[in-house]
Amino acid sequence: MTDAMRQATGIALGLTATAGWAYYNVGTELARAEGFRAWDLTALRFGVAAVVLLPWFIWRGWRLPQWRLIALALLAGPAFSLLFNTGFQLAPLSHAVVIGPGVSLLVALALVRLVDGQRLNLPRIIGLALLLAGLIAVGADRADETKSSGIWAVLGDLCFVATGTLWGTFSWLLGRWRLPPVEVMAGITLYSALVFVPVWVMVWGIPDLPSGAWVHQTVVQGLVGGSGAPVAYAAAVAILGTGRGAIYNALLPPAAVLMAIPITGLVPNALQWTGVALASGGLILSMAFPGKRVPLPATLASRP
User: What is the model's pTM?
Assistant: First the structure.
């Protein structure tokens, strides 16, 4: 495969992951109305994904350094999902799709710059500024603020700050360790399910909800949010590197705004359309001028 084909494949995988997570975000918003609790969605996400990816882990995943998979599971496993779903119950959807991805992008790029020594050139800085401006425009809309207010809404926002920090660090380690994406996500979901699902059943119990809601959230949480989108994202990071791959986290807000049109019937207003345009333009500019990687010092390059 030529380098151009690899780059095109990486971009396609990144866009696939963004679309999957947009659907996952909108579907999680619907889950709250269906009666699901944060821990129910977490159990579905990792329990279903573990079943789907278990054959791949048995075939190839067990050969990887297991301590690295466990470390990644601590970042992108149940703690991430619980914080994310708790934030969804307290803060508006616009906050969920802006704060988490924005913090994730900043954390990943900070680690790439400070630890890996990758510099950002001027066109890419401008592109990132446009992208962040688009995120702010999407998040500035207050039309969906129908949940908690005051200290509880702030607590929800802090949950998204925490998830962004966890996912940004996770993205950086994915790019640094260069592990195969499917095996990585298989290991993360398996370890997460083994720890969390038994606790969920014994402590919280399985809620009595309509079968249709369970089927819908099985697809949203397990097949899309727990396996499909993360695998596509991990593959994109492996191909494009952390700096470029992490940008797809920040494309989530405009994607979620567009995804909500056919699913919830909510048509974006002028401010949201502005955010979509700015974020999309910033993404294109950032991907067109990725910047140059500075070789790591020998003492740093040898670290795991």
Answer: 0.77
